[in-house]
UniProtKB/TrEMBL annotation, chain A:
The keyword Transmembrane applies. Belongs to the binding-protein-dependent transport system permease family. This is Sugar ABC transporter permease. Residues 87-303 form the ABC transmembrane type-1 domain. CDD domains: TM_PBP2 (cd06261). SUPFAM superfamilies: MetI-like. The chain crosses the membrane at residues 30-52, 92-113, 125-146, 166-188, 232-255, 282-302. PROSITE patterns: ABC_TM1. The lineage of its organism: Bacteria, Bacillati, Bacillota, Bacilli, Bacillales. Its main location: membrane. InterPro entries: MetI-like, MetI-like_sf, UgpAE/MalFG_permease.
Automatic annotation (TrEMBL), chain B:
InterPro entries: Bact_solute-bd_prot1 (IPR050490), SBP (IPR006059). The keyword 4Fe-4S does not apply. It holds the Pfam family SBP_bac_1. PROSITE patterns: PROKAR_LIPOPROTEIN (PS51257). This is ABC transporter substrate-binding protein. It comes from Paenibacillus oenotherae. Keywords: Cell membrane, Lipoprotein, Membrane, Palmitate, Signal. The lineage of its organism: Bacteria, Bacillati, Bacillota, Bacilli, Bacillales.
Length: 314, 441
């Protein structure tokens, strides 16, 4: 297309110089680069450069008009109980969300994909709508629902079973439960969509031939559905790990700020926000950010290796 | 085939919505609450921008800008105020000052955040030339908290004298006269009576904020506070341990309960208190506004008194909290901004307006006796006349506080660790304070 166009044009004008210019403009070698240029520029501007400058800043003490190199001091300072607590909280949260947000949506997706299921679209929408609710609104509603008063919704609910009121957000285990409930409520529909998309790509013929061979539903699920969903599952797992470790707004909204009793709601990003932005120690905050990056990279790498993603296709 | 296409399309649509949802969050966090301006504009007026986290502060400055324009026809200003959420307003300003661009001319900085802005070379204009002439009739400790190396950088809205609010209805049922409570020991005894006769706690204590703990620490005699005079962490001092032990014993006896919602600014707390949940609460003077706005049913039932003292004759108040308005070095009209700020918050007129419009106890002591402060307003309607008599009574007993580079960290530790662990988890106060003090040193 391109070539014939340029030829037509050059033959029209007939000039040699014009042909040359056209060759550059219509060059097939250059075109792809021009097409990806907007992405490259925005990647460099908004990703590569910030990462680079964060790495540099993590070795500095950054105050207005006073930037000094401090070597590894920021990283040494990370060795403190508050940071460990943040890492612990984020890790527990990530593991728990993985335990809930992979198997449950998977099973629900299989149900929703089944021919016998009625009102599929209705259920699809219902599970997905929570993802559209602003987390700010969600956090405030959950904070009030799980309030410590007898009149709070959840305390009234457990009161029906004769249980004592609980100060939900004041103890580590119950506040983690609340965070988990929020995550489940919000993300189950999204993960379900991923799995549903994966399920619809599995050819029907496989199931039909399995039925002819007399396979039970369970066998079909474990031998056909599960293995063929592997790529999607790994994708969901990867983004869920990252999502878990980068959780911040949920806890920020739940505690109406970055402060929770005994730091039970403090996450790694929360700690970054506290040190870098609230206290203005951008150098130290950068060190926290880089540590988070390395941590998630390492975990993702191990996980991908474990699932054999670096091996060539058999 | 069509079905699959519809499905893909719906997924794409759904994700667009998710993305829209995400960006929505960010916006809702930082949207401007008002554009301000409009106050006495005229051609050739100099535009001054002002950032704050409290809409009332913005309204106050807009009103003062109109007054300024009336008096200074040759130096007209156009105030452009913006109100952001508390945390956003502080981090936005900090980043703007750090990056050297984008800061407003004037900004509000809350006391517990202020030291963050004094790190390195402060990017704020020194206000010594406007402040120093006023010191003879000014609560100087309210300026000292915004100073570094002899330079003053902020002007406060109020003294923030800590007082105690008694629910006279509950105390009446228990047969207690609040004026008989002179010391914290009296207070404890009265609390026992209230608990026995009415079954209600005497007070609530904050377990995730500093407003119950800090006033009691700050009113201690002597120059030390949460920080020592030299800026070192003072949390493990025996006096401070005693304060926490006192609070813990109130909780153990049932005389005090942890504030519903953990803090005195929580919706749960307002509801609890509004229904007569506890007989008293000690908070700074600026807390009056919360009573009027969030606890309307207590109108006419609240008496404001000086706080009990640790021993007879010891100080009964401390200047608590505060917000300093600053002029940034990035401002192109620093001199004008300073003059206007002094007009709004340092002048006699300004200080009268601070009381009239916002119910703040103004930092200028010479206005406290003026007739303007005795006029009826929404505060006297609610709390009765003579609010200022309490203040004049404790005038010489208002203890200053020490603010230093460690202050934000100390408050973080109080809000997230100290009071919660001692008052909710019942850990040993001395052990908690010593552990935290060791961490922060």
């Amino acid at each position: 297309m391109v070539r014939s166009g340029s030829r037509a044009e050059s033959s029209l004008t007939g000039g040699k110089q014009v042909t040359k210019r056209n060759n550059i403009l219509y060059s097939q070698k250059l075109a792809p680069y021009i097409f990806v240029l907007p992405f490259i520029i925005s990647f460099c501007l908004f990703f590569a450069y910030p990462v680079y400058s964060t790495v540099i800043m993590s070795f500095q003490e950054v105050f207005p008009g006073q930037v000094t190199f401090v070597g590894l001091d920021n990283y040494k300072e990370l060795w403190n109980p508050t940071f460990f607590k943040a890492v612990k909280n984020s890790t527990i949260y990530t593991v728990l969300t993985l335990l809930v947000l992979i198997p449950v949506p998977l099973v629900l997706a299989v149900f929703l994909n089944s021919k016998k299921m009625k009102a599929k679209n209705f259920f699809r929408s219902v599970t997905f709508i929570p993802a559209l609710i602003s987390i700010v609104v969600l956090g405030i509603i959950f904070r009030l629902m799980f309030g410590g008063q007898e009149t709070a919704l959840m305390n009234q609910f457990i009161g029906l079973f004769g249980l004592e009121k609980i100060a939900w957000l004041n103890s580590a285990s119950t506040s983690m439960l609340v965070l988990l409930v929020i995550a489940t409520f919000r993300w189950i529909g999204v993960n379900l969509l991923y799995f549903l998309a994966g399920l619809q790509n599995i050819p029907h013929s496989l199931y039909e031939s399995a039925e002819i061979d007399g396979a039970s539903t369970w066998v079909k699920f474990t031998r056909i559905t599960m293995p063929l969903l592997k790529p999607i599952s790994i994708y969901v797992l990867t983004i869920s790990i990252y999502g878990g470790y980068s959780m911040f707004v949920e806890s920020y909204m739940l505690y109406a700020g970055n402060k929770s009793p005994n730091d039970i709601g403090l996450t790694i990003v929360g700690y970054l926000y506290r040190t870098g932005l609230e206290k203005g120690e951008l150098g130290f905050g950068s060190a926290v950010g880089i540590t988070l990056l390395l941590l998630t990279l390492a975990i993702t790498f191990i996980q991908l290796k474990f699932f054999g993603m670096f091996k060539r296709e058999e | 085939m069509r079905k699959r296409f519809t499905f893909v399309l719906s997924v794409v649509l759904a994700f667009t919505l998710v993305m829209a949802g995400c960006s929505g969050n960010n916006n809702s966090g930082s949207s401007e609450a008002g554009n301000g301006g409009g106050a006495g504009e005229s051609a050739g007026a100099t535009e001054l921008s002002f950032w704050t986290f409290n809409e009332l502060h913005q309204k106050y400055f807009e009103d003062m800008a109109a007054r300024w324009n009336e008096k200074n026809p040759d130096k007209q200003i156009k105030l452009k105020g913006s109100t952001f959420p508390f945390e956003d307003s502080h981090s936005k300003l900090l980043v703007a000052l750090q990056s050297g661009t984008g800061a407003p001319d004037l900004a509000d900085i809350e006391l517990s955040k202020f030291p963050n802005y004094l790190k390195g070379k402060p990017q704020l204009a020194s206000l010594n030339d406007v402040l120093e002439p006023e010191f003879s009739h000014y609560v100087k400790s309210r300026a000292d908290i915004y100073a570094k190396e002899g330079q003053y950088y902020g002007i406060d809205y109020h003294v923030g004298a800590s007082v105690i609010y008694y629910n006279t209805e509950i105390l009446g049922q228990a047969g207690i006269n609040p004026d008989d409570i002179k010391t914290w020991a009296d207070y404890e005894a009265a609390g026992k009576t209230v608990l026995e006769k009415t079954g209600k706690p005497m007070t609530t204590l904050e377990v995730a904020d500093q407003w119950s703990f800090w006033p009691q620490v700050a009113q201690l005699e002597g120059p030390d506070d949460l920080l020592k005079v030299n800026g070192e962490v003072n949390l493990d001092s025996p006096d401070i341990i005693k304060v926490l032990e006192y609070q813990q014993s109130l909780i153990k006896q049932g005389i005090a309960v942890a504030a519903p919602g953990n803090i005195h600014h929580a919706e749960e707390y307002y509801g609890f208190m509004n229904q007569g949940g506890a007989a008293s609460v000690w908070m700074p003077m600026w807390y009056m506004g919360r009573f009027i706005e969030y606890m309307p049913d207590l109108k006419g039932k609240i008496a404001i008194k000086p706080m009990p003292a640790w021993s007879e004759g010891a100080p009964r108040s401390a200047g608590m909290g505060g917000t300093g308005t600053v002029v940034t070095l990035q401002s192109k009209h620093q001199e004008l901004a300073k003059e206007f700020l002094a007009f709004a918050k340092l002048s006699v007129d300004g200080n009268i307006q601070l009381w009239k419009q916002m119910g703040f106890d103004p930092p200028r002591t010479d206005v406290w006796d003026m007739p303007e402060l005795k006029e009826a307003n929404k505060f006297t309607d609610y709390f009765g006349d003579g609010i200022f008599n309490v203040l004049t009574e404790v005038k010489d007993e208002i203890e200053g506080v020490n603010i230093g580079e460690k202050t934000p960290e100390v408050f973080d530790a109080i809000d997230t660790q100290i009071v919660f662990r001692a008052l909710v988890n019942n850990e040993d106060p001395a052990a908690v304070l010593k552990e935290i003090a060791a961490q922060l040193k």
